[in-house]
Predict the 3D structure of the following.
Amino acid sequence: MKSELLRTIQTGCLIEAEFPLIGETLDKFEGNGVISTYAPKLRPAKPWRNQIMEGWLIVSVYYWQPENFRCILSREGQVNIYGPGGKPDHTYQIPGAGVWGEAATGLGYVNRIRAIGDHLYVCGQSRQVYRFDWDGKNLASGQWRDAAGPMRQPPMPEPPADADEEAFDRWLDENDAIDLVDIDGPAEDDIYAVGDEAWHWDGQHWGQITLPTDEPLTAIKVMSATEIYLVGRNGTLLRGNRHDGFVDLSSVEDNQRFVGIEYFDGRLFLASNLGLFVYDPSQRKIERYITDLKPDLKDTHVLEAKDGILWSFGFKDLAWFDGQTWTRVDHPDNPPIR
Protein backbone atom coordinates (compact mmCIF):
# COMPACT_ATOMS: atom_id res chain seq x y z
CA MET A 1 0.00 0.00 0.00
CA LYS A 2 1.33 3.45 -0.90
CA SER A 3 1.17 5.64 2.19
CA GLU A 4 0.07 8.68 0.18
CA LEU A 5 -3.06 6.77 -0.89
CA LEU A 6 -4.21 5.65 2.58
CA ARG A 7 -7.67 6.99 3.35
CA THR A 8 -10.04 7.65 6.20
CA ILE A 9 -13.77 7.26 5.61
CA GLN A 10 -15.53 10.38 6.88
CA THR A 11 -19.08 9.60 5.82
CA GLY A 12 -21.22 7.45 3.55
CA CYS A 13 -24.69 6.80 2.17
CA LEU A 14 -26.43 4.28 -0.07
CA ILE A 15 -27.40 4.78 -3.70
CA GLU A 16 -28.63 1.18 -3.74
CA ALA A 17 -28.49 -1.59 -1.15
CA GLU A 18 -25.13 -2.79 -2.51
CA PHE A 19 -23.94 0.50 -3.96
CA PRO A 20 -22.51 2.89 -1.32
CA LEU A 21 -21.28 6.41 -1.95
CA ILE A 22 -18.36 7.23 0.35
CA GLY A 23 -16.72 10.50 1.37
CA GLU A 24 -13.06 10.14 2.39
CA THR A 25 -9.91 12.10 3.15
CA LEU A 26 -6.36 11.25 2.17
CA ASP A 27 -4.45 10.56 5.39
CA LYS A 28 -1.36 12.43 4.20
CA PHE A 29 -3.30 15.30 2.63
CA GLU A 30 -6.34 15.98 4.82
CA GLY A 31 -7.26 19.04 2.79
CA ASN A 32 -8.10 16.85 -0.19
CA GLY A 33 -11.27 14.80 -0.26
CA VAL A 34 -12.06 11.65 -2.20
CA ILE A 35 -15.47 10.52 -3.43
CA SER A 36 -15.60 6.74 -3.87
CA THR A 37 -18.26 4.32 -4.99
CA TYR A 38 -18.30 0.56 -4.50
CA ALA A 39 -20.58 -1.31 -6.92
CA PRO A 40 -19.69 -5.05 -7.09
CA LYS A 41 -22.87 -5.97 -8.98
CA LEU A 42 -22.70 -3.11 -11.46
CA ARG A 43 -18.91 -3.33 -11.95
CA PRO A 44 -17.79 -6.82 -10.87
CA ALA A 45 -14.34 -6.58 -12.50
CA LYS A 46 -13.51 -3.17 -10.98
CA PRO A 47 -16.08 -2.39 -8.28
CA TRP A 48 -14.25 0.65 -6.86
CA ARG A 49 -14.14 4.09 -8.48
CA ASN A 50 -12.94 7.33 -6.98
CA GLN A 51 -12.40 10.98 -7.69
CA ILE A 52 -10.13 13.44 -5.87
CA MET A 53 -11.77 16.68 -4.75
CA GLU A 54 -8.89 19.08 -4.13
CA GLY A 55 -9.37 21.47 -1.25
CA TRP A 56 -12.50 19.72 0.04
CA LEU A 57 -12.86 18.24 3.50
CA ILE A 58 -16.00 16.20 2.90
CA VAL A 59 -18.32 16.06 5.90
CA SER A 60 -21.56 14.68 4.44
CA VAL A 61 -22.82 12.81 1.39
CA TYR A 62 -26.43 12.16 0.46
CA TYR A 63 -28.35 10.36 -2.28
CA TRP A 64 -31.34 12.48 -3.36
CA GLN A 65 -33.40 9.58 -4.66
CA PRO A 66 -36.33 11.36 -6.37
CA GLU A 67 -33.86 13.32 -8.52
CA ASN A 68 -31.26 10.52 -8.76
CA PHE A 69 -28.63 13.03 -7.63
CA ARG A 70 -25.49 12.50 -5.55
CA CYS A 71 -24.88 15.36 -3.11
CA ILE A 72 -21.47 16.13 -1.62
CA LEU A 73 -20.91 18.70 1.16
CA SER A 74 -17.61 20.14 2.38
CA ARG A 75 -17.28 21.76 5.79
CA GLU A 76 -16.57 25.10 4.06
CA GLY A 77 -20.03 25.08 2.47
CA GLN A 78 -19.09 23.81 -0.98
CA VAL A 79 -21.80 21.58 -2.47
CA ASN A 80 -21.45 19.35 -5.51
CA ILE A 81 -24.64 17.87 -6.96
CA TYR A 82 -24.40 15.48 -9.88
CA GLY A 83 -26.33 12.75 -11.64
CA PRO A 84 -25.34 9.23 -12.72
CA GLY A 85 -22.30 9.27 -14.97
CA GLY A 86 -21.58 12.83 -13.86
CA LYS A 87 -24.43 14.47 -15.81
CA PRO A 88 -25.78 16.93 -14.89
CA ASP A 89 -23.12 18.32 -12.57
CA HIS A 90 -22.94 21.62 -10.70
CA THR A 91 -20.95 22.99 -7.77
CA TYR A 92 -22.13 25.72 -5.42
CA GLN A 93 -20.77 27.77 -2.55
CA ILE A 94 -23.28 28.37 0.22
CA PRO A 95 -23.15 32.15 0.78
CA GLY A 96 -21.48 33.02 4.07
CA ALA A 97 -20.74 29.46 5.18
CA GLY A 98 -17.31 28.22 6.19
CA VAL A 99 -14.26 29.50 8.07
CA TRP A 100 -11.32 29.87 5.70
CA GLY A 101 -12.96 30.25 2.29
CA GLU A 102 -13.39 33.53 0.44
CA ALA A 103 -17.15 33.37 0.98
CA ALA A 104 -16.89 32.87 4.77
CA THR A 105 -18.43 35.60 6.93
CA GLY A 106 -17.68 34.17 10.38
CA LEU A 107 -20.58 31.72 10.69
CA GLY A 108 -18.42 28.60 10.86
CA TYR A 109 -18.41 25.15 9.31
CA VAL A 110 -21.43 23.24 7.99
CA ASN A 111 -22.01 19.59 8.88
CA ARG A 112 -24.89 17.74 7.20
CA ILE A 113 -26.89 17.65 3.99
CA ARG A 114 -30.25 15.88 3.67
CA ALA A 115 -33.43 16.04 1.63
CA ILE A 116 -36.62 16.84 3.51
CA GLY A 117 -39.76 16.98 1.43
CA ASP A 118 -38.92 18.50 -1.95
CA HIS A 119 -35.78 20.37 -0.89
CA LEU A 120 -32.22 19.79 0.25
CA TYR A 121 -31.21 21.26 3.60
CA VAL A 122 -27.81 21.92 5.20
CA CYS A 123 -27.06 22.71 8.85
CA GLY A 124 -23.95 23.88 10.67
CA GLN A 125 -22.30 26.05 13.30
CA SER A 126 -23.86 29.29 14.56
CA ARG A 127 -27.21 27.58 14.01
CA GLN A 128 -26.84 27.78 10.25
CA VAL A 129 -29.65 26.23 8.17
CA TYR A 130 -29.93 26.55 4.39
CA ARG A 131 -32.46 25.32 1.80
CA PHE A 132 -31.69 24.55 -1.84
CA ASP A 133 -34.10 26.06 -4.38
CA TRP A 134 -33.99 25.31 -8.11
CA ASP A 135 -36.34 25.22 -11.09
CA GLY A 136 -36.39 21.41 -11.25
CA LYS A 137 -34.80 21.38 -14.71
CA ASN A 138 -31.44 23.12 -14.72
CA LEU A 139 -29.07 22.58 -11.79
CA ALA A 140 -27.33 25.86 -12.61
CA SER A 141 -30.54 27.66 -11.58
CA GLY A 142 -30.11 26.40 -8.01
CA GLN A 143 -29.47 28.73 -5.07
CA TRP A 144 -28.79 28.08 -1.41
CA ARG A 145 -30.94 30.34 0.72
CA ASP A 146 -30.85 31.06 4.45
CA ALA A 147 -33.56 29.07 6.24
CA ALA A 148 -32.49 29.84 9.80
CA GLY A 149 -33.75 33.40 10.04
CA PRO A 150 -33.44 34.92 13.52
CA MET A 151 -32.39 31.54 14.97
CA ARG A 152 -28.99 31.93 13.34
CA GLN A 153 -26.26 33.45 15.47
CA PRO A 154 -24.41 36.56 14.30
CA PRO A 155 -21.04 36.06 12.58
CA MET A 156 -17.98 35.48 14.74
CA PRO A 157 -14.78 37.53 14.48
CA GLU A 158 -12.07 36.11 12.25
CA PRO A 159 -10.16 33.14 13.73
CA PRO A 160 -6.47 33.61 14.56
CA ALA A 161 -4.51 33.12 11.34
CA ASP A 162 -1.89 30.82 12.85
CA ALA A 163 -4.24 28.83 15.10
CA ASP A 164 -3.59 25.13 15.61
CA GLU A 165 -6.51 22.76 16.29
CA GLU A 166 -6.50 23.48 20.04
CA ALA A 167 -6.38 27.25 19.54
CA PHE A 168 -9.14 27.03 16.94
CA ASP A 169 -11.37 25.08 19.36
CA ARG A 170 -10.74 27.75 22.02
CA TRP A 171 -11.76 30.41 19.50
CA LEU A 172 -15.05 28.57 18.88
CA ASP A 173 -15.70 28.17 22.61
CA GLU A 174 -14.94 31.82 23.31
CA ASN A 175 -17.39 32.89 20.62
CA ASP A 176 -20.04 30.40 21.80
CA ALA A 177 -20.84 29.04 18.35
CA ILE A 178 -23.84 26.71 18.72
CA ASP A 179 -23.23 23.72 16.46
CA LEU A 180 -26.09 21.98 14.62
CA VAL A 181 -24.77 18.65 13.34
CA ASP A 182 -27.85 16.94 11.92
CA ILE A 183 -31.13 17.99 10.36
CA ASP A 184 -34.11 15.84 9.38
CA GLY A 185 -37.87 15.64 9.70
CA PRO A 186 -41.01 13.94 8.38
CA ALA A 187 -42.10 17.06 6.43
CA GLU A 188 -40.93 20.54 5.52
CA ASP A 189 -43.16 22.02 8.20
CA ASP A 190 -41.87 19.53 10.77
CA ILE A 191 -38.05 19.74 10.80
CA TYR A 192 -35.61 18.98 13.61
CA ALA A 193 -32.08 20.37 13.82
CA VAL A 194 -29.85 19.10 16.64
CA GLY A 195 -26.36 19.43 18.03
CA ASP A 196 -25.36 21.56 21.02
CA GLU A 197 -29.06 22.43 21.17
CA ALA A 198 -32.27 21.06 19.62
CA TRP A 199 -34.60 23.18 17.46
CA HIS A 200 -37.83 22.59 15.57
CA TRP A 201 -39.29 24.29 12.46
CA ASP A 202 -43.10 24.27 12.19
CA GLY A 203 -43.25 25.88 8.76
CA GLN A 204 -43.35 29.41 10.19
CA HIS A 205 -40.90 29.65 13.07
CA TRP A 206 -37.93 27.92 14.69
CA GLY A 207 -38.42 27.07 18.37
CA GLN A 208 -35.94 25.55 20.80
CA ILE A 209 -36.92 22.13 22.16
CA THR A 210 -36.72 21.34 25.87
CA LEU A 211 -35.10 17.92 26.34
CA PRO A 212 -34.55 15.64 29.37
CA THR A 213 -30.77 15.95 28.92
CA ASP A 214 -28.20 18.65 28.32
CA GLU A 215 -25.85 16.30 26.44
CA PRO A 216 -24.89 17.40 22.90
CA LEU A 217 -26.79 15.47 20.22
CA THR A 218 -25.28 13.98 17.08
CA ALA A 219 -27.91 12.29 14.90
CA ILE A 220 -31.62 12.01 14.15
CA LYS A 221 -33.72 9.02 13.05
CA VAL A 222 -37.23 9.80 11.82
CA MET A 223 -39.62 6.86 12.09
CA SER A 224 -42.82 8.92 11.82
CA ALA A 225 -44.13 12.34 12.77
CA THR A 226 -44.69 11.11 16.33
CA GLU A 227 -41.65 8.83 16.69
CA ILE A 228 -38.36 10.70 16.41
CA TYR A 229 -35.12 9.32 17.88
CA LEU A 230 -32.16 11.50 18.89
CA VAL A 231 -28.74 10.23 19.95
CA GLY A 232 -25.72 11.92 21.47
CA ARG A 233 -22.89 11.88 23.95
CA ASN A 234 -22.68 9.79 27.13
CA GLY A 235 -24.96 7.12 25.70
CA THR A 236 -27.89 9.49 25.06
CA LEU A 237 -30.93 8.00 23.31
CA LEU A 238 -34.18 9.99 23.26
CA ARG A 239 -37.57 9.19 21.74
CA GLY A 240 -40.53 11.47 21.16
CA ASN A 241 -41.56 14.52 19.18
CA ARG A 242 -41.86 18.27 19.45
CA HIS A 243 -45.48 18.26 20.60
CA ASP A 244 -45.48 15.40 23.12
CA GLY A 245 -41.93 15.84 24.37
CA PHE A 246 -39.02 13.39 24.51
CA VAL A 247 -38.29 10.57 26.95
CA ASP A 248 -34.80 9.41 27.87
CA LEU A 249 -34.13 5.78 26.91
CA SER A 250 -30.44 5.88 27.83
CA SER A 251 -29.27 2.85 29.78
CA VAL A 252 -25.51 2.84 29.37
CA GLU A 253 -23.15 4.56 31.76
CA ASP A 254 -19.95 4.38 29.73
CA ASN A 255 -18.41 7.62 28.53
CA GLN A 256 -19.39 6.92 24.96
CA ARG A 257 -20.78 8.93 22.07
CA PHE A 258 -23.61 7.61 19.96
CA VAL A 259 -22.88 9.21 16.58
CA GLY A 260 -25.12 7.24 14.20
CA ILE A 261 -28.52 5.56 14.34
CA GLU A 262 -30.49 3.33 11.97
CA TYR A 263 -33.58 1.12 12.26
CA PHE A 264 -33.05 -2.39 10.90
CA ASP A 265 -34.60 -5.80 11.51
CA GLY A 266 -36.88 -4.52 14.27
CA ARG A 267 -34.13 -2.83 16.28
CA LEU A 268 -32.31 0.46 16.46
CA PHE A 269 -28.61 0.08 15.69
CA LEU A 270 -26.42 2.66 17.40
CA ALA A 271 -22.91 3.54 16.22
CA SER A 272 -20.46 4.74 18.86
CA ASN A 273 -16.80 5.28 19.62
CA LEU A 274 -16.94 2.09 21.71
CA GLY A 275 -18.48 -0.11 19.03
CA LEU A 276 -21.91 -1.08 17.77
CA PHE A 277 -24.94 -1.20 20.08
CA VAL A 278 -28.64 -2.02 19.66
CA TYR A 279 -31.81 -0.83 21.31
CA ASP A 280 -34.62 -3.38 21.33
CA PRO A 281 -37.96 -1.59 21.87
CA SER A 282 -39.51 -4.75 23.32
CA GLN A 283 -36.74 -5.05 25.93
CA ARG A 284 -36.29 -1.28 26.41
CA LYS A 285 -32.57 -1.78 26.86
CA ILE A 286 -29.38 -0.78 25.05
CA GLU A 287 -26.90 -3.63 24.64
CA ARG A 288 -23.54 -4.14 22.98
CA TYR A 289 -23.88 -5.81 19.58
CA ILE A 290 -21.31 -8.41 18.53
CA THR A 291 -21.06 -9.27 14.83
CA ASP A 292 -19.78 -12.52 13.33
CA LEU A 293 -16.80 -10.71 11.79
CA LYS A 294 -13.27 -11.81 12.74
CA PRO A 295 -12.06 -9.49 14.13
CA ASP A 296 -15.23 -7.70 15.12
CA LEU A 297 -15.98 -4.23 13.72
CA LYS A 298 -13.03 -1.96 14.42
CA ASP A 299 -15.09 1.21 14.30
CA THR A 300 -18.42 2.48 13.11
CA HIS A 301 -19.76 6.01 12.90
CA VAL A 302 -22.33 6.11 10.08
CA LEU A 303 -25.16 3.59 9.64
CA GLU A 304 -27.64 3.33 6.78
CA ALA A 305 -30.07 0.61 5.72
CA LYS A 306 -31.76 0.08 2.38
CA ASP A 307 -33.73 -2.79 0.82
CA GLY A 308 -32.86 -5.30 3.54
CA ILE A 309 -29.16 -4.40 3.88
CA LEU A 310 -27.52 -2.46 6.74
CA TRP A 311 -24.15 -0.77 6.15
CA SER A 312 -21.65 0.31 8.76
CA PHE A 313 -19.21 3.00 7.66
CA GLY A 314 -16.19 3.13 9.96
CA PHE A 315 -13.12 5.30 9.64
CA LYS A 316 -11.21 2.29 8.28
CA ASP A 317 -13.70 -0.55 8.56
CA LEU A 318 -16.51 -0.99 6.01
CA ALA A 319 -19.09 -3.77 6.35
CA TRP A 320 -22.67 -4.72 5.52
CA PHE A 321 -25.30 -7.00 7.10
CA ASP A 322 -28.16 -8.83 5.38
CA GLY A 323 -29.90 -9.82 8.60
CA GLN A 324 -28.03 -13.12 8.79
CA THR A 325 -24.37 -12.55 7.99
CA TRP A 326 -21.94 -9.65 8.17
CA THR A 327 -19.58 -9.11 5.25
CA ARG A 328 -16.48 -6.95 5.50
CA VAL A 329 -15.42 -4.95 2.43
CA ASP A 330 -11.68 -4.44 1.95
CA HIS A 331 -10.70 -0.95 0.90
CA PRO A 332 -8.30 -1.14 -2.08
CA ASP A 333 -6.05 1.64 -0.72
CA ASN A 334 -5.96 0.60 2.95
CA PRO A 335 -4.47 -2.47 4.63
CA PRO A 336 -7.07 -5.26 4.97
CA ILE A 337 -8.52 -5.77 8.46
CA ARG A 338 -7.67 -9.31 9.55
